[in-house]
Amino acid sequence: MNIELEELAKEFGTERALHPVSLFIPSGALISLLGPSGSGKTTLLRILAGLEFPTSGRVRFDGADATGLSVQDRRAGFVFQHYALFRHMTVFENVAYGLRARPRRERPTEAEIGRRVTRLLDLIQLPDIGARYPNQLSGGQRQRVALARALAIEPRMLLLDEPFGALDARVRKELRQGLREIHDNTGLTTVFVTHDQEEAMELADLVVVMSMGRIEQVGKPAEIRARPATEFVRTFTAV
Amino acid sequence: MSDIVLSRPVPVTTEPPLARALLVGLAILFVAIFLFAPLATVFAEALAQGWRGMIAALSLPDAQAAIRMTLSIAVIAVPLNAVFGIAAAWAIAKFDFRGKAFLITLIDLPFSVSPVVAGLMLVLLFGANSSLGVWLMAHDIRIVFAFPGILLATLFVTFPFVARELIPVMIEQGRTEEEAALTLGASGWRTFFTVTLPNIRWALLYGVLLCNARAMGEFGAVAVVSGKIRGETATMPTMVEMFFNEYLSVAAFTLASVLAMLALLTLLLKSLLEWRHADLLAATCRH
Amino acid sequence: MKAALLRAPSPLPGFGLSFGIALAMLSIVVLLPIGALLGRGLMIGPAELWGMVNTRRVWSALALSFRAALIASLFNLVFGLVLAWVLVRYRFWGRRLIDAAVDLPFALPTAVAGIALTALYAPNGPFGQALAPVGLRIAYTETGIWLALVFIGLPFVVRTVQPVIEELDRDIEEASATLGARRSHTLRRVILPTLTPALLTGFALALARSVGEYGSVIFIAGNIPGLTEIAPLLIVIRLEEYNYDAAAAIGIAMLLISFAMLLAINAIQIWSRRRIGLV
To answer: ipTM score here?
Structure first.
């Protein structure tokens, strides 16, 4: 599914979080929103998810207007920075949550839910942790469970907010590879937010550099390295 | 066009406007019926015969004796509980020893004992019916149906207030500041008065405030222990009961309105403390 | 040597003094009186104690105290949750006033609350008159006791649940929404379970307080033996008859109920801490 942003702006009171920005995300791409804190990258991601609504502008999914579409109806798989796993539910129940939350006539049978959860736990290579609670997992395991939970709803796109932010360096490397594989297997349009330029450059097909609510440059990692469009991009992406 | 104004969808983490209005309405109605109505009644009934009725009621000798009694009890009970609270909190928060959890449970115990049972315990311990009571009587010491009994009953029901407020605050603050003071050569007492006490003063005031409100308002335990002798052992709340049972409604509600004013004052000061010093209080401590 | 085993060494002074003061006061004010009650029970003997508790009047008083406390606490469980939610999540005119007023039952002497409720709900009082045409009598019936106990227990649920709602992670609610859950589903399946330990704790605290309540109840109850006579009142009556043993027997029964509830509260807290790391 491709995503099109048309002159999207967001104000919080008098604060401008996002100046009108436009962007086209091709179907199946793995793209990164890169920028320092306060650059508007997380606001943009949350607007895509339907967690915030733009002050003006349009969002289109495959050409259809989705600006006012409620978060529940968007089917955007969202991975939160601190994973937001449900602490009172087991891993299995967490992953099954989105399926069980569907209205009765769209809800799969319990047997089908069980099969899908098992398949997802296999996909994230943690087949045996279904019965555990989130506080019994390591940081890396939690992140993968959050990913499986987001994938369970058969999302139309995958959105990740600083997916590796809370992890130590070694685990981070490992999970980057994991995200790449999941993206390649599912073919989902994937957008992740990061402030770490190395991470963005290594993982993404396309990098969107942002600063102070504006898009500074959009391009392939190599292009951005070779030809930074502005002074900000040059200093921010300098190793 | 980019300047199309969009209808604002409801934020994700709240309820629909109608549900919100309904819940707020329900909450206000609940508080109005269960809290504000009884409070308003106290003042309305006290003023049933105007200010004159209230002044007349307050000049009754029994009422004045009850006010004196309640004040004297609070003046002694509250400082004693403050000393206990500080001592207990110091021992519990600054040291590690066995049985700490059990000690905290024991301190909290009076909260879950019925005030009437508390009064009963004191009557059984010091009353004429016990061997200790007989011995006390032989030495002409009166505890039950006298001031010391009321004091003990008040101490029992207010026992946890100060300690409970101070313990979490002092645990939170740790002991590094005290250790620093000691390495700088301060004596133990000096460390306490110049380092510890300033850190806990708002929490202490908060605990004292609640302790005082309960000390002046305690009814069940005091009713059992005091014998409710008018002019002698009757406190304000027990005098309220006696006036009320004698159909002296204005007198009962006048005394009650004095207690209600005290309660309102307590709430006001408590709210002020919570708004100003929220970070230094256990009740509102946010981590 | 022994002291070192009981207490970890510390550079701070004053352990002996502070621990001594705390223990001395605890003993005189709390432990000695409790010991006197339990000692009295031992002197009377279990069979005699049982005989004095096992009468119709005592049973109905204990059952009434417990039943009314249970009903009032359940009521407070529901409305306390609503009140706490509204106070934390919504902004409306008078919110701070209501927030401060929630503690009124802690600050207002119980006897004052008792006579005020009686004046309100008595047949000639404003609420009593309004409810009479509907055929509702509140004062001098068991309903009056429920009402007084709702007043007394009101702050407990609100004040235990409020901080937990404040600490709720908005991420969790958003996560639930992105997974397709409607708001009502999120409230039921995500928020309510997270609040359950606090709700149970508040409920148990309100229950413990209400079972032993005396001052606010006796004025509005009517105090008819076997019907609206609560257990603490029966203790007072026995004491006035100089029947100390019978008073002690009821007192011990009530103390045991208190201990059981204290145990339950601790168990809830340990359980919730283990399960989801919440208090």
So the answer is: 0.91
